[in-house]
Amino acid sequence: MMYLDVQEIEMSRFNEPVKIEMVDQPSGKRQNWIYEEGEYLLTEPFINWESEELLNAFRDIYVDATWQSIEVALPKYFTKNFQILEAGFENELKKYPNYLIHDAEYTKMVFENIAIIVSEFPFTHSAIEFTKKNGFKITLAFPKNKLLMISKSLRGDKLEGMDDQVTYSLFYNKQLIDSDALKLGESKEGFKEYLSL
Amino acid sequence: MHLNWEKAKKDLRNIFRCKYYRVIGKLTYPACILPRTSYIHKVDIASLINRQEVFVSRRSNKICEETFNELGETYTLREDAIDPIDVPNMSLNLMGGRFLEMHLKYVTEGEAAKIWNGVRKIYLSDFMNLYTSLESFCPIYFNLRGIHNQPFIYDKGKSPELTKEMQDFYKILRKRYIGGKSREEFIGEIRLAHVPTNLNYWHCEFKLQGYRGALIDRKNQGWIERLADDIIRNILCANGYKTLPATLAPITKESYIKAKS
């Protein structure tokens, strides 16, 4: 069994795709995220529902839905990368707990949501830092002098921070190529492709 | 002749006083980094960068572990290592000349920290109590290749003066100004300027040049803090180094010593 398991279940309702993303956290918790056309339907995940249980509940709501289960293929290095990032987070938490804007449990949950995406990137080194003003920042070094910095703001309401909205800065030879704010999950494949070049 | 004698007396008095203060341990400031009248007032940074790799240094008041992230063989600066309020006109020291890492511990104040006018002969004995020496600090080095002339985007929020300026500009261009936006975006540029002070010839500053070359100065305004945060994240963090490269070429004397006529 993988250290962390991610599955996606796609359903369609009146030909509109509805997706359930099931994420088994290392802590043993299972998060079920439900979204439609890229937008999360709920701001918080269903915790610890079994997929069958969840689907049955959804069948009752979406009586006309057809569904299929898709196992998401993850890169070989995914688990190792996730463990490295998690260790970096724990190390930072030990050193700078006073930098946290919200409680550690919430910060870790948001961090893991971002780390799950980032673990698919083929980085060689990483650094995690809590920033006094904002939240946390993940710096990743890649082969061929590529550097990616991902900042996650945790300012404001807890619910606002739950999504994968981040600010990134991408460098080549330490010179800025691009910087912008985006939903990381939506651009994951593009980043993976560029960073693997 | 009278003037020269006066000068010679002052020179001798300075030498004697400095020697005496050094012997009794009251003077530790390094004379080698003082401005000299034989020096060019301001080093031409642009042509220096065209010729060679240039690094500048700064002192972090945090310990090194809290200043840098380690990424294998390279480092990046932690965001909190620099206070955004320090970004406009950030104080730095030009490396590769006579300024060394050990000189970073000296902090000048008052007249000693004022800008050197290029002609004043500096007598160290005149600045005896105008510097302090730090026990510990962590050096930060910046490679100017990724910083000098780097553009940045900033907005100042809605301002009637800027809206009018933009309308005028668009009128000249015969383009329609689309107003009503809550913010107006501009492009600026970060540059290194040589700003020698009375006790440190190698002192430099990062200058933020905004719209029409206007200097973005140190002020506690929300938009400047946002801009400073962006500059730290997008420019400074990636270009901060823990050590100087062993291969860094020294700055040639022609770059800072006046040619003999």
Summarize the structure.
Chain A contains 5 helices and 11 strands; from the N terminus they run E-E-E-E-E-H-E-H-H-E-E-E-H-E-E-H.
Explained architecture:
- The complex is a heterodimer of chains A (197) and B (261).
- With 197 residues, chain A is α+β, with helices and mostly antiparallel strands.
- Chain A has two domains: 5-71; 78-196, no CATH class.
- In chain A, 31% of the residues lie in helices and 38% in strands.
- Chain A is built from five helices and eleven strands.
- The radius of gyration of chain A is 17 Å and the shape is globular.
- Chain B has 261 residues and is an alpha+beta fold.
- Chain B has one domain (2-156, 186-255).
- Chain B has helices at residues 2-23, 45-51, 160-172, 222-236; strands spanning 55-60, 68-71, 74-77, 90-94, 106-108, 131-133, 138-143, 150-155, 185-194, 203-209, 215-216, 240-241.
- In chain B, strands 1, 4, 7, 8, 9, 10, 11 and 12 form an eight-stranded antiparallel sheet that branches. In chain B, strands 2-3 form a two-stranded antiparallel sheet. In chain B, strands 5-6 form a two-stranded antiparallel ribbon.
- In chain B, β2 and β3 form a beta hairpin.
- Chain A binds chain B through residues 99, 124-127, 129, 131-133, 137, 139, 141, 147, 149, 151, 167, 169, 171, 173-176, 179, and chain B through 69-72, 74, 76, 78-80, 143, 145-146, 150, 229-230, 233-235, 237-239.
Number of domains of chain A: 2
Instruction: Sum up the overall morphology of chain A in one term.
Output: globular
DSSP helical segment count of chain A: 5
Number of strands of chain A: 11
Main β-sheet of chain B: number of strands, strand sense, barrel status? 8 strands, antiparallel
Radius of gyration of chain B, whole Å: 22 Å
Question: What structural category characterises the helix and strand content of chain A?
Answer: alpha+beta
Hey, which two chains have the biggest interface?
A: A-B, 23 and 21 residues
- Poorly predicted segments of chain A: none
* Strand and helix order of chain A: EEEEEHEHHEEEHEEH
Amino- and carboxy-terminal Cα gap of chain A: 30 Å
The number of helical segments of chain B is 4
- Order of SSEs of chain B, N→C? HHEEEEEEEEHEEEHE
